[in-house]
Design a protein that fits this description.
alpha+beta, 4 helices, 28% strand, elongated, disordered N terminus
Length: 137
């Protein structure tokens, strides 16, 4: 198998957000995984199945390969509970690498748990402020 170019597989962080990049077959079999998301690096290894960890990906693969022939699909705010103490929120991007490739698909995962947590907290504070102002009126 030829070595992947940096555009196909990258383990860099994006704006301080941990990133995991996974190359996989249509069956979900992982060919290669690289990244900085610890809970994924522990679980997602070569020859394991991506669909086991992200079932939604299995349903969307046909859109990239058969149905609409999109080049990429973005899936925001995928919530995963790894165990009773570890809850994460990821944004996923599925991409077709190229037609007739031995490894046709790439999944890029951004761990946005902290980002979404801050947004929720800010939204909650704003809501409480509005309610407090309305109760004074």
């Amino acid at each position: 198998m030829k070595k992947k170019s940096s555009s196909e597989l990258s383990d860099k962080e994006t704006l301080g957000v941990p990133v995991q990049t996974i190359l996989f077959h249509l069956t979900g079999q992982i060919v290669e995984s690289s990244g900085s998301i610890a809970e994924l690096a522990e679980r997602i290894v070569k020859n394991s199945n991506l669909f086991q960890y992200f079932p939604i990906v299995e349903n969307l693969v046909s859109i990239l390969t058969n149905d609409i022939k999109e080049d990429s699909i973005e899936i925001p705010k995928v919530e995963v509970r790894w165990n009773t103490k570890l809850y994460r929120i990821y944004d996923l991007t599925l991409e077709r690498i190229k037609q007739n490739s031995l490894v046709p698909l790439k999944c890029t995962i951004l761990d946005l748990t902290d980002h979404y947590g801050k947004l929720t907290s800010t939204q909650q504070e704003r809501n409480e402020k509005v309610i407090k102002e309305q109760s004074k009126a």
